[in-house]
From TrEMBL:
The keyword NAD does not apply. The keyword Membrane applies. Keywords: Membrane, Transmembrane, Transmembrane helix, Transport. It is a multi-pass membrane protein. The chain crosses the membrane at residues 29-52, 64-81, 87-104. This is MFS transporter.
Amino acid sequence: MATAFLNMLSILFFAATAALSLRILIVSISLFGVFLGLSLPLQTTLLANVLPQHRATSTGVYNFFRYFWMTIGPVVGTLFYRYGFQLEFYACVIIFACALLFIYRQFFFQRRCVE
């Protein structure tokens, strides 16, 4: 939880200070890299501790999806850049709406069925 907060804080620091000077830009990007470097192994460790019987499978699936989207991201980003920033915004809105629907179905819909 603390590493996620530090990642968020470093991104906000970058957004607030990126236009001030090159030195502050380098510091903010370095802080983000340090905090991201701390959080990625932590996520894998937490996953392995939650599913100890399926440690290899869960870690493999986690890494597959993490690196798959790192590979696809620049390609999709190039397409969005080609067609304008509005398409990128609408795609993010659709993805966010799907995530909210998933959260609702996982946490709230099942509770109503149980009660």
